[in-house]
Structures are given as C-alpha cells and as structure tokens.
Amino acid sequence: MINVLCFAHLKEQVGKEQVELQHNELTVRELLNELNEKYSIHTDTLIVAVNEEYADLDDMIQSGDTVALIPPVSGG
C-alpha cells in the first residue's frame, strides 16, 4: 500500500487529506496519471516528495512509502 498525502486545494478536490493506493510499486508518473484519472486533478504543476525527499517522474515508489503532493506556492 502507498500512502498519498494531499495538501492545500488538493484535499478539497480529492475529498480527503490522504489516499491509500493498493500497489506494490509504480513510478511517480504512473501515480500522477492514476490520481488524475480518479480525481481529475491537474498533476503537471505538482511537486512530489517520496518519504520526505523530492522525486522525479521516473523515480520508483514502493509499497510502504509515503508520497506528498505539494501544489505550487505563491506569495510575497
């Protein structure tokens, strides 16, 4: 199981703060595609962290990992 944490407006779009996905492993890209299909969230501007480290699209996510989806931040 992969635990996905949603921050800011994403938790409103998804309807909860965290989502559990039943996968043994998948890439960050595959995870984002699945979330886009299930919840219609735009994933192209998200920052993704796996186990508190920034991840690239081709990085692998394993069962037991925690993924954080961080939307862009603006302000001054």
UniProtKB/TrEMBL annotation:
**Entry annotated with the keyword Metal-binding:** no
Q: Which UniProt keywords apply?
A: Nucleotide-binding
User: What Pfam families does its record include?
Assistant: ThiS
Please verify whether the record's keywords include Nuclease. Answer: no
CDD domains tied to this protein: Ubl_MoaD (cd00754)
The record's section on NCBIfam families has: moaD, moaD_arch
Family, similarity comment: Belongs to the MoaD family.
Q: Which PANTHER family match?
A: MOLYBDOPTERIN SYNTHASE SULFUR CARRIER SUBUNIT
- Provide the protein name: Molybdopterin synthase sulfur carrier subunit
Query: Which species is the source of this protein?
Result: Bacillus lumedeiriae
Highest classification ranks of the organism: Bacteria, Bacillati, Bacillota, Bacilli, Bacillales
